[in-house]
Design a protein that fits this description.
Helix content is 42%, strand content 12%. It has helices spanning 31-43, 65-81, 93-101, 119-126, 151-168, 188-196, 198-202, 216-221, 236-249, 259-275, and strands spanning 10-16, 48-52, 86-89, 106-109, 130-133, 176-179, 209-210, 253-256. The protein is built from 10 helices and 8 strands. Strands 6-5-4-3-2-1-8-7 form an 8-stranded parallel beta sheet. By secondary structure, it is of the alpha/beta class. Helix 3 (93-101) packs parallel to helix 4 (119-126) and helix 9 packs parallel to helix 10. The radius of gyration is 17 Å and the shape is globular. The structure holds pterin-6-yl-methyl-monophosphate (PMM). Pterin-6-yl-methyl-monophosphate (PMM) binds at residues 14, 16, 21-23, 56-57, 89, 108, 110, 131, 133, 179, 181-182, 209, 211, 213, 255. Residues 14, 16, 21-23, 56-57, 89, 108, 110, 131, 133, 179, 181-182, 209, 211, 213, 255 line the site of pterin-6-yl-methyl-monophosphate.
Length: 277
């Protein structure tokens, strides 16, 4: 079921097999390279390797389900054969179903079930964990949807609605994970407010996943004096700081590109906690 390491929060390694993801798109010349990268994430300590075949960067075009399947299945199968626990990053029921049949264990749905009305059935029948991320619309239009009365209360309420819909469709609530969806229909200020109020999301009683790795709001925070955003590859320390913060707050896990740093940070937080008992 959901990986839950004894000595730290879970670390989900990101494996984007897309030509255009914002931080690591087009990295792999071949499927073998992508599989090797997934195996490295696991060797670095990833509890799950999250394989995605469609970019969700703001403004990204949607790809046909066939293309998504052609990208993810040849990576998922060999990873599963090597014993790597895999989640599939998709909002499409068809893609999730095929990935689960190929051995994926978890569905990471950035649409929280809104992108495909058949997803609840697929997850219910598989009995697998389902990560429900807060989402308001597809990447092409999501930045126009970043309007909230109170971002923390609104995201909490909208996530609760997704949980209710999943449970009404017969999904076991014990299989659900919540994610505030940092950067998805959110400004930098929204992302910081959601992080500051992480405990109120955790208080809902479901495991919470945080995906901040290398995102633009970290680039803005660390911008040069002339306002130039910190380059994507140089946002790792900020990402690791968020892992430590999420661990302290009691999140279930973080979704990151550089697994080892987050594993180290999460273990360090546990050591401090245990020493204080
Ligand atoms: N972010 C991205 C993609 N998938 N899934 C979850 N659950 N949470 C996230 O924050 C999230 C996600 C976009 O980032 P990427 O292009 O680096 O994968």
């Amino acid at each position: 079921m959901l990986p839950a390491p004894a000595d730290r929060i879970a670390v989900v390694g990101i494996l984007n097999v897309t030509p255009d993801s914002f931080s690591d798109g087009g990295r792999f010349p071949s499927f073998d390279d992508a599989v090797a990268a997934g195996a490295r994430l696991r060797a670095d300590g990833a509890d799950l390797v999250d394989v995605g075949g469609e970019s969700t960067r703001p403004g990204a075009p949607r790809v046909p389900a066939e293309d998504e399947l052609r990208r993810v299945l040849p990576v998922i199968r060999p990873l599963v054969e090597r014993g790597v626990p895999v989640s599939v990053d998709t909002y499409r029921a068809r893609v999730a179903e095929a990935a689960l049949a190929a051995g994926a264990q978890v569905v990471n749905d950035v649409s929280g079930g809104l992108g495909d009305c058949d997803m609840a059935r697929v997850v219910r029948d598989a009995g697998c964990p389902w990560i429900l991320m807060h989402w308001r619309g597809h990447s092409a239009s999501m930045q126009q949807l970043a309007r909230y009365d109170d971002v923390v209360a609104d995201v909490r309420r909208e996530l609760c609605r997704r949980v209710d819909a999943a449970v009404a469709a017969g999904v076991d609530p014990a299989r659900l994970v919540l994610d505030p969806g940092l950067g998805f229909a959110k400004t930098a200020a929204h992302n910081w407010a959601l992080l500051a109020a992480l405990d109120s999301l955790i208080a809902l009683g479901l495991p919470v996943l945080i995906g901040a790795s290398r995102k633009a709001f970290l680039g803005s925070l660390l911008a040069a004096p002339d306002g130039t955003s910190r380059p994507v590859g140089d946002r790792e320390d900020a990402t690791t700081a968020i892992t430590a913060y999420a661990a302290l707050a009691g999140a279930w896990g973080v979704r990151v590109h550089e697994v080892r740093r987050s594993v180290d940070a999460a273990r360090t937080v546990t050591a401090i906690r245990n020493a204080g008992r």
